[in-house]
Amino acid sequence: MIANSDVSFSTLQSDTTGFQWTEPNGFTATTAMIKLINVQPKDTGTYVLTQNNKSINFKLALTTTTEINNPDIAGVILYPNPSSDGIFNVVNGKNNKISVYNLDGKNVYNSFIITDSQVLNLSSLPKGVYIAKLTSEKTINYHKIILSN
Length: 149
Known about the structure:
Elements: E1 7-10, E2 20-22, E3 28-29, E4 33-36, E5 45-51, E6 54-60, H1 71-74, E7 77-79, E8 87-91, E9 96-102, E10 107-113, E11 117-121, E12 128-135, E13 140-147
């Protein structure tokens, strides 16, 4: 994330009640979405969304460069999304661990990406919405992925 940019965090679920956001500076919210405008270093840290005793963490970090060729900044790309056959292409993912979670927070898939362009086969999973967590030595990226009909 580049300083002075805007960022939004939101839920993937259609039920928009019972949310509790906890943020690094002690601010809390009970909405389904929060938006940070003109992000500054003081806004960095872990944002926690809790609903029905289940939590997910979002980590916000800033960078001082806009160089798009840096894979740590460009980020990992998963496509097509949604996927009707459960097959995703992963680009810029070399040396990342990938963990896929269902919306109940259960880990349903783990693998290690060894090349810059690799195929991810999730065809054995039921149709639905998942969260893919890609972890490298320097970054953690989260992606909403959809296995559709």
